[in-house]
Amino acid sequence: MKKLLAAMFAAASCASVAQAQQERLSADTSAPILTLEQAVAAAGGAAPSADAANAGIKAAQANRTVAGLRPNPVAQAQVENVAGTGPYSGLRSAETTMGVALPIELGGKRSARVAVANAQLSRAELEAAVAAADVRLQVTSLYVEAISAERRLATARDQLRIADDALRAARVRVQAGRASPLEEQRADVARINAAARLERAARLAEVARLSLARRLGRPIDSGLDVALLDRLPAATYRPTVLPSAFGTLTLAAADADLAVADAGIRLARANRVPDLNVGPALRRLEATKDTAAVFTVSIPIPLFNNGKAAVAQASAERSRVEASRRMTALDVEQAIAEAQAEAANAETTARAAVGPALAAAQEAARIARIGYREGKFGQLDLLDAERTLADTRVAAIDALANYQNARARLERLTAPAPQGRNQ
Fold it and tell me: Would you indicate the residue range of the signal peptide (predicted)?
């Protein structure tokens, strides 16, 4: 009788496992896979932050065009010796002057404006790179959560299948008079709890997939690269390296702010030099009906505003930006060090969870099933082993997801600045 029960239990388990594997393989081969890179590319095109960054680049390019324009000439007209007394009454002695004033910028104002605009354009381009890196981190987090939810859902389905098998085995034992009806009740409770866990896991998997689809801006009609979760680096010795913020995207943005401040000081100094206004004109003398040429030159007198305050303001702003840049470098290096430790710890936890811990839990569950079928172990031992296996599987999934997220955060912090930026 024991051999018959064992054969029936093993056949049911093997059939359900084979059916699940067959369904998984057929789904994997028939449905296309949306990879992480494809998801990042799709989200980048639909991200509002990317649209804002591109609009900022266009605005900076237009600002550079405006900065390179010369001042417009000014048309002037003047009438003298009118509406007076004596010979100057009426328009008999009027003198009409018409001409054009051409502003001449001195001190390198135009080149200084262009330098500021170029620095702002470089900053806008870096802002676009920062937005792209942030989108990649956000999409990676959502993608990892989606594939983790699918893994948890598969684990919940497997646990429900095991609970169904255990319930059938308990019924057979009870009907054969080899076990108390309490065992069947316990197995039924375990199956009900497994069904509830499956329902919760299915709902969470659907929410995670919808969250990713919302971020991509379109529904996801294909499968996800669930194998991404298992990708761990080679277990080789990696010496601890002192983190450096040099060359990172975040520090490059701070350097761009410093370049804008430096260009602002140059522009403030250039604005201290007064500009000239020169231009030819023609004067009409009504009294003699003669015409004469006039040449005007004007220059403002920096009496009340000589530009020192503007230079001091730009210098103070530059000092503030430089201090902020130093603080950013320290913060980035600290964040990189913490992210490196977090990723290394997550990798260690993931290796242990998917390696010895999971193997031990699977072996314990296998032994408990065999022993329960043969009457060597009680039902409580079997339920405890199955519960430990389920918890270990979920813990392994969480550990793998934590590692992938930690690696994504580290890559965001160490993302290099784009090359060939506008200077």
Answer: 1-20
